[in-house]
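Data card: per-record layout.
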Amino acid sequence: MHARVTPFIMLALLSGCAVRGAPELDRSIIPIAPDGWSARPDLEPITASNAQPARESMGWIDSFKDEELDSAVREAFANNRNLQSVLAQLQASRAAMRVARADLFPSVDLSGRATDTENTETIFDGTLEASWEVDIWGRNLALARAGNADRRAAAAEFAAARQALAAAVAQAWFDRSAARISMDLATSDLERRKDTLRITDARFRAGLASRLDVRLAQVAVSNSEDRLETALRTAKNAARALEILIGRYPSGEAAGARELNMAQPLPNVTAPVSVLAGRPDLIAAEARVDAAGLRAKDARHAMFPQLSLSFEATTRSGNFGDLFDPSTYINALSAGLLQPLFRGGALLAEADRQGALAKSTLFDYAQATLTAFQEVEDRLDAEAIVARQVASAATAAEEARAAVNLTRSRYINGRSTIFDLIEAQTTAIASETRAIETRRAQIENRINLHLALGDEPLPNIRGL
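The structure for this 464-residue chain is written out next.
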């Protein structure tokens, strides 16, 4: 009895000497979520205890009160090719999880062969084989759990892709609006410049202006025409970019928003800990850490003894029907034990590699957490700053338009020069352009804030 047991004991001792300890994944490197956001200490972040059910049922797209934008985002969810690719990857991950789970169960195969030689009857051979690796050390279970973690990560990445797509569509939607408003502004500026040229030409014919004044006015008209062409091209490009996101052919016909209307005031903001728990990209990163740790465990256990059971039943008959008669089979049951002894260091190296990959994945998750906090802090900090910029730019644009009207009147009356009028008009279009840009930046910051917080763009988006 002892002679039979001794080899198994020796194998276990050898495997114990070969296997190193588990990789130490120090999760303390993951930043601890603070109680609130430093950029807005006046805010009371939403937590699980004070969350409002009504807010959970609404998406942030609704805050812009634009039904066409809502429809555009839904159309993008249905037709965007990149999102469909991520969905296919999710489906592949789900299938891979089922593949990994299959190793937990026995495999069964049935084969048959017919032999027909000259002057002999046809002989039918049948073989029924079943094998199963006993998961003594939990290797197969670890791989199955890793596959499930990969599936969770893929599902979270799909949710993150949907949120990113919704944000991209919303940004492109308002980009198109800003481009159209800029085009209207360029058209208005060209009309102003032509009006100046007309006045200057009339003054020249009356002997009140020089040929230089006329040429300067004409230069201003030409520059304005160039600016309009650029605005037209930008508007078309913005429309095409929106159409590509939605999944349409890029014909340049998409309209976008009618106005650059800011969403409602700053909504309730989730707490930092809720961002960690709710942002899909962070959920995916954490699931990747779990999967990497489980694969590191499997790599270490690959050096342990492996016990397999097999069953084989064979039959040989001149009757084809006997292949399906269990009574004609001869059965054999066997068990085997495999202990890796020497693989040129491959198993140890693989264990080290998987352990290092697990640590790398953990560091990536920790860094992603810090980046997520930074994104929210940046957007919250910009909320008040951009709002002040919008107000200042709007005032500057209004004053610049008034200055153009005043300078035009003074130029007609001979109390200002052509240089004064051209400079006033140039200042006006620069100020009006800046006003458009700040309004667009304010909307973009709000969209990116929702994205940074992991807010859902549409109701029930987590259904897939």
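Known properties of this structure: The radius of gyration is 36 Å. The longest helix spans residues 139-205.

See the next section for split statistics.
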